[in-house]
Each structure stands twice: as C-alpha cells, then as structure tokens.
Amino acid sequence: MVFLVEMRFCHVAHAGLKFLSSNNPPVSASQNAGITGTHYTMTNGGSINSSTHLLDLLDEPIPGVGTYDDFHTIDWVREKCKDRERHRRINSKKKESAWEMTKSLYDAWSGWLVVTLTGLASGALAGLIDIAADWMTDLKEGICLSALWYNHEQCCWGSNETTFEERDKCPQWKTWAELIIGQAEGPGSYIMNYIMYIFWALSFAFLAVSLVKVFAPYACGSGIPEIKTILSGFIIRGYLGKWTLMIKTITLVLAVASGLSLGKEGPLVHVACCCGNIFSYLFPKYSTNEAKKREVLSAASAAGVSVAFGAPIGGVLFSLEEVSYYFPLKTLWRSFFAALVAAFVLRSINPFGNSRLVLFYVEYHTPWYLFELFPFILLGVFGGLWGAFFIRANIAWCRRRKSTKFGKYPVLEVIIVAAITAVIAFPNPYTRLNTSELIKELFTDCGPLESSSLCDYRNDMNASKIVDDIPDRPAGIGVYSAIWQLCLALIFKIIMTVFTFGIKVPSGLFIPSMAIGAIAGRIVGIAVEQLAYYHHDWFIFKEWCEVGADCITPGLYAMVGAAACLGGVTRMTVSLVVIVFELTGGLEYIVPLMAAVMTSKWVGDAFGREGIYEAHIRLNGYPFLDAKEEFTHTTLAADVMRPRRNDPPLAVLTQDNMTVDDIENMINETSYNGFPVIMSKESQRLVGFALRRDLTIAIESARKKQEGIVGSSRVCFAQHTPSLPAESPRPLKLRSILDMSPFTVTDHTPMEIVVDIFRKLGLRQCLVTHNGRLLGIITKKDILRHMAQTANQDPASIMFN
Prior knowledge:
Elements: E1 34-36, E2 39-41, H1 76-93, H2 98-139, E3 142-144, H3 152-157, E4 173-175, H4 176-180, H5 187-215, H6 224-231, H7 242-257, H8 265-280, H9 284-287, H10 290-309, H11 312-323, H12 329-349, H13 373-403, H14 410-425, H15 429-432, H16 435-443, H17 477-500, H18 510-534, H19 539-542, H20 554-570, H21 574-584, H22 590-607, H23 612-620, H24 637-640, E5 653-654, E6 658-659, H25 660-669, E7 674-678, E8 686-691, H26 692-705, E9 714-716, E10 732-733, E11 744-746, H27 751-761, E12 765-770, E13 773-779, H28 780-790
Helix pairs in contact: 2-7, 2-8, 2-10, 2-12, 5-7, 5-14, 6-23, 7-8, 8-10, 10-11, 10-12, 11-12, 11-21, 13-17, 13-18, 13-20, 13-22, 13-23, 14-17, 16-18, 17-18, 18-20, 20-22, 21-22, 25-26
C-alpha cells in the first residue's frame, strides 16, 4: 500500500507539475524525499507561499498545471500534499463567514455524496443490464406476442394454460419456427430454431464489436486489469469516460445475449468505476486531485461487485484484496456505503423477479460431513489446475493475437468465435442456456417441485408425503443423460472460454469460470451421492449416512466447485469466500469453501503466482508494481541505475549558467521526462529535479508574459540571481518549478529496499548519489525491466505499447 510510511514532507517548494511528458512510456510517481541508505533526509528550498505560482514574476497559474498526460503515472506524494494544503486552507477560512462554513461542510461531505451517486448509478445500470440481457437472450429462441418486452419467463407468468411438467410453454410465447413455418415440433422446426439462434447470436456479436471498434475501443474486455493499473496511479485517458460507459453498457448486453462464453460481472466493475470517475468531476476535491479520485474508484469497484453478485461485503473485500493500491480507512467506510447503496437500488429494481440480487441465489438445509472435505479438496485441486491451464493458454493466445495478422481483424475474430459457439452450443441444452441460468440449475438442490433432468431420480413409491428434505435416491435415466451432456458442456466451456476472454467485446471471466467449476462440482456431487446410496454400509458412510436419509447435496458441490475454479483463475481468497457465502446465505458452508479456495490457490501458485489479471497487466506492459510479488535478489541501486557503463552521460541542467536556448535544445534533442539540476558540471552536487513539461510550460509562458525573455536569457534555478553584465538580457527565474527535495538513494542501497520504497510511496523515479554527488537515476521502468531480467523474462515485455 502507498503511504505506509508517514510522510512529513509536504512543504515542498514547488507548485510545478510532477509528471513526466514525452513519447516514451511512463515512469513512476513522485520524488518528494531524499533517502540515504535507510535514513530519510529532507531539504526545503522555499516556503509554502513560494509554491503558489509557477513563475516568480507571474500572478496567475499557468493553464495545464496540475494535470497529467495520457499514459503517465501520478505523483502520489505531491497529490497527497496538495490535498492537505487544500484542507488547511479551507479550515483556516471557515470561521470567516457563513458562506465559507457552508463551503467547508460541502467539502467535508463531498466524499459521501460522490459515493452515494456512484452507488445509485451502478445499481440502476446493473438492473437495466440484467433486464435487457435476459430479454435479448430469450429473443434468440422466440418472442412474446402478448407483450414484446417480456422475456420467456415473464410471458408465461400470467398464463393459465401452463402445466407443471412444461411450465415454460404457453400460447403467448412463440418460437421462431412457430412464427415462420408454423411448426412447433419436428425436424423442420428444430432446423429453423437452430438457424434463428445462430442468426441472432451473430447479429448481437457483430453489433457489439462494431460499436466497440467505432465508438469506444476501451469498452472491450473485462476492464479489471486496467482498473488495477489505474488505481496504482497510471493515467489512461478515456478509459473511464462517458463514451466508454455508454458503449460498454450497451455492448455488454449484446455480448451476453450473443451466447459467447463470457459474463457481465467483471465488466460491471468497469461500469461502476466509469460512474465514479464521471461523478468525481462534480466535486473539486476529487476532480483536481488524482490520488483522491482513486479513493472514489476503489469505492466504485466495491459497488460493481456488490451489484454483480449481490454481495456488498464481498465487494468491499474484493476492492481491498484484488484491485486497490491505496486503501485508507475512510475509503473502507465509503466503499461499504457505496456497495450498500448499489445493492439497495438493485434490490428495489428486482430485475429477476425473485426478490434477490442475483439469478442463482440458493439455500441449502443439509449439513456437510467431515468425509466430504476430501471431494471438496479434490474440487480445489481441479480449480487450481484449471486456473493454471487457463492463464497459460489464454495468455499464449492473446500474445499470438498481438503478434500476428489475426489481431488486425477484431470484428472477424468475434464473428468466428460467436459462430463456433452458437453452432456447438445449440444442440446441448446446458450450453444453450444463458450461463447464469446454467449456474442456477447446477446450484439448485433437487426438491419435490424440480422438473430438471438433473433431478430425474427413481422415486420411492412407498413415500406417503412430500417433504423438503428428499432422501438420497438412485439416479434415473435423465440424470445419467444429463451427466453426459454436462461432460460435453464442460469440455466446450473450457475450450471456448480460452478463446473468448480477450476478444474485442465486453467479456467477464467470473461467470464462465464459475460455470466450469459448477459443472465439475455437480458431476462429482452426483457421483458421491450415488456412492453413498449404493454403499451406505462402507465405514466412511456408515456413521452418518443412514438408508433413507438426505446425506449428500450435489448442488453444494457445484457451489464449491464454482468457487474453486474462480479462485484458481483470479487467486482471490477471502473476498471470494465471502462473495459465495453471500450468494448462498449459509454460514454453515464456509469451511468447505475455504478449504476448496485455499487448495485451488496453492495448486495454481505451484504453476505460477500470477492471477489472470496480473498476467494481462504484464502482457499489455502496464507499469504496475505488484505488492504481492517478492523481490529477493541481492543487487544494488548502482547495478540498476542509468546511465550504465557504455551509455552516454546523464542529461543534467546547471543551476545558473545555462540559457533558454540551451534548455530548449536539450529538450528537443532528448526524450527524457525530467532533468536533475546540479550546481556545476565540476561539482555534480545535486540541487533538485525539473520536469520536462514544467520547463516547456514555464518557458512558453515567460516568452508570452514577460518582456525581455529571449533565447540568450540566462536561466536561474538558484535562490539569488548571479550578477550579470549590464547589456545581458533579462534572466528567467525558474526556481519555483524546481523540486528541491527529489527522492534520493545512495549507490549502495539494496534494490530490495528501493523496490519497497517505490511500491509503498508510489514513486516515479529516484536519483542515485554518492556523497552528495549525482551518479544516475532509477525509474519505475528500470525497476520493472530489472525484475523481468532477474526472472529470466524478456525485459522488452514490460514496455507499454
């Protein structure tokens, strides 16, 4: 986490912008303290008042100061200091008048207002997406003539002509075969429904990828890898903008309805973060401070998971465990509140008509027994193996997509994947189902009112009454048929999910992973159930499973398998257990869930410690220092810093003997994002650090607003202007844009400490000195490159493209 070290150095002598501007990939954030070994030192080059203006002789701040360029990293320390100064200024004025007191109260409550608005919008959009996706999914099979906006289930709710066995059939609902050729049964009807299913699937997929390509390229994918990177301080302009929100909301419905092997839960986190970003611009406290804005985004990601799974507490833990980089205590409270508001709004909309927040809410009444831990752990092993396989296969495919011509035709790829999915999915009833409905069916326990083929057991004819807990029974023909279909569905889902995640439509991974685990779990659950029924006299069953008792719940195995597979792919632990617990509403099953999820993480970590989101961050080359990754090598700062032995010398500025032309030439001839300022070439004593963009803005502004500033004007970074000949042009004083306290380490500082400092303070770069003399610079890119080299990876793989 950032700011684990208490920062007592906010009195900086500059208001100059602390970001790096060039065509090169970004480095990292901030440089506000000096370090020598493990001892922190601080120099202050001016007072607070001296930092209020960019140029000593200007009365107005320069436009553009305080913002960051695209694909650059924010300066966490500077943003935190800026917020503290703003807070002091508001507190000092609040007693002056009633208006100032009102402004102070508005500022204090703006955090709660922005998360309230974010929660309201997230809940409303999630309800809209759920309703629209359900309707469009059923549109592939038919249409409701009595009310076109009803899906299949709603169409038959009010019908008096449905039967218990065929409760989904009613005169108001017409399949496409009935409408087009007038046949409800037979081979002609089957073929016509098959053709219409493929037509609608391809139409939805084509429309989705076209909208993404034309209007909002950032709307594709899950969004969670990019949100993790943004929360770590990276700037990706437009990723959380209005167009992205609008297109992602529309295309998410289309992508889910197309039947592709993807889910809407991951993209809902992106949708919620878009809402949080847009609402943060209504409040100056967040619109002008990138670090504060990321607190809102952390709360928004919690709201996104809250509405995705109906799990407010799980959403908060997901934000804390999986996506957030900086998570102070007040963000925890606001995340909790945003998740609460979002869940409340979704519950008010009631998109599924079952008074639940998700489609596959279940409740189990049968306790689990100690022996069952063994199959639960086996499901955990399967989840870990699935996760390791999926990450490697999907990353290999995505890398191939990037490096071949296939990646240049995203629309064609989506059409091909959608066509293959639709053609293979239709014949199998379990793959034809919407994935959320499939999970619901797999989770559901077999009661007396269930008509699914998964519940086609041979009933005891001597049973005199219907009870809630039906005893274990021998499987019928329908169950064995369903197992074969589920095995085929499992293979289909595994293969298609590998090729679907990463295509240019909104695509979440939570639901496909849960579906794979739920299928495997249900198969294992039925196997254990039948084993207990036919061999109840075995010692493992004899003590607790009597004849005629309801011992095994196959739906519980499906739930545990779903959690294990999702854990294997994402490597989530605590938040995942809480999410699944909130789905089922049963505290009794936390131990099986914990055992399966922890096993899946251990097995997955044995093949590689990265989860799917970290793997995609590395694939895309985002500058992300993962706090979970350990650095154990014994290198020193001198081994990593630039310049190296054969490199040209470090480009530096001197404090008072360079002209405007000299600095402009250096800016034009180099692509560096900032320049150390030294006393002289001979002494190499460090004075401070000036950023490329600050220099450019300051010089351009001075030429426009100050008379006498020409190319031969002397630039002075010192406190006092040196004496110049009378005929010399007017000097340009740029001390106010100079960072007088750049973060420094000595050349003998272990890289383990340097990496830790970069992670915890969110640094952009630090300077390397020896006895106060400047030796070189270490940027975040240098650290990522060095970590890739020590892990025997290609250092070029971390370059952002």
